Amino acid sequence: MGTETAKRRVTILGSTGSIGKNTIDLISRNREHYEVVALSANSRARTLAAQAIDLGAKFAAVADPGAYAELKDALSGTGIEAAAGPEAVIEAGAREADWTMAAIVGAAGLEPTLAAVRQGRTVALANKECLVCAGELFMKEVARCGTRLLPVDSEHNAIFQVFDAERVQAIDRLILTASGGAFRDLSLEQMKSVTPEQAVAHPNWSMGAKISVDSASMFNKGLEFIEAYHLFGLPADRIEILVHPQSVIHSMVAYIDGSVLAQLGSPDMRTPIAFCLAYPERMAAPVPRLDLAQLGRLDFRAPDAERFPALRIVREALHQGGVVPTAMNAANEVAVAAFLNREIRFLDIPVVVEATMGEIARTSTTGGTLDSLDTVLAVDREARVCAREKTHALAE
Ligand code: NAD
Ligand code: MG
């Protein structure tokens, strides 16, 4: 780690997930540079305990109180502290660390990630839903605490790598690339009957279930659009989406002189995670080397807003602002869970999201920007109740 002699103290929120495991893979190969402070998971106590023992973590937290006995049992005699409940996960984020990977999925990650932000050190952000449901509040806390925020999402990590933060006035626009997801070549008719198994089988990336369904509906690109808006501070009309099926160009920055800078790589999350882990140095990552000659070609096309209404819905949510992006995110989480549970169909997801956004915009008692955590959480709860009613109505 350059001139640093002490080990970097790291915490991983969401260590049992896809991003969490990839982060651990890199840390395990470079144990001399890292010391693990805390790990957290939702309910997989055995996996979490095994990770904590292997990495010599000091603290392990499960969100589900029902998993406490199992965690405590698996960690007995190790000296590793076990805790459970949402408060314990927040504590994992608050334990002193130099670097935190925020890789919980969904708005459930907001409070633990904010706890890490408030340490004023470095937060590697994978949990994009934090920025969608509480963008203004989150970025204000980052600035107030002097926290270094490093984007893990491959598109935002790519932009970060080619974004001249000292000459923002020279930046014309951001181009977010999208694989198009599992259903990029299906007709609307064909999309009517797709199954959860088909939706989670992403053509290029191996990821958690929720983000895989989001990729298939293109809500993922929509959430990333809002994520980019908050991270880089460009107006929404200067953020473009471009379908690029091979996922080799991870995103681009276009400058006013006509230059377009891109970051390329194999579709393996260990590249952006390694970038964040070693920042500002670089570390070796065991990813397949990019072989452009073998690939032969890179393809591009404009996104299809008719087959993927999520793209229009998300722009609309950002445009309306206030409670609407928070409601949209919550409704999408509920709708995706209902689809994975086979309660609603794939094409019902945008229907539930849009109807919830409209209803919450009309009925919410909270106006203007959401500037406190309590209001964000209240809107998130209201929207979940509303979205659940809508999924139940569709399921009947
Ligand atoms: P995942 O489902 O594989 O893992 C999610 C993690 O969050 C698990 O450790 C789980 O135990 C934990 N978790 C879930 N619910 C929780 C709760 N209520 N409280 C506390 N912890 C909880 O998801 P993932 O694919 O690793 O994605 C994590 C985040 O990173 C998401 O926001 C996703 O959009 C983002 N992301 C993922 C990828 C990817 O390649 N997987 C790429 C870019 C961004
Ligand atoms: Mg992404």
From TrEMBL:
NADPH binds at residues 16-19, 127, 129, 208. Catalyzes the NADPH-dependent rearrangement and reduction of 1-deoxy-D-xylulose-5-phosphate (DXP) to 2-C-methyl-D-erythritol 4-phosphate (MEP). This is 1-deoxy-D-xylulose 5-phosphate reductoisomerase. Its cofactor is Mg(2+); Mn(2+). One of its GO terms (biological process) is isopentenyl diphosphate biosynthetic process, methylerythritol 4-phosphate pathway involved in terpenoid biosynthetic process. Its EC number is 1.1.1.267. The gene is dxr. Residues 149-232 form the 1-deoxy-D-xylulose 5-phosphate reductoisomerase C-terminal domain. InterPro entries: DXP_reductoisomerase (IPR003821), DXP_reductoisomerase_C (IPR013644), DXP_reductoisomerase_N (IPR013512), DXPR_C (IPR026877), DXPR_C_sf (IPR036169), NAD(P)-bd_dom_sf (IPR036291). Gene3D superfamilies: 1.10.1740.10, NAD(P)-binding Rossmann-like Domain. 1-deoxy-D-xylulose 5-phosphate binds at residues 128, 154-155, 179, 202, 215, 220-221, 224. The keyword Cytoplasm does not apply. Residues 10-135 form the 1-deoxy-D-xylulose 5-phosphate reductoisomerase N-terminal domain.
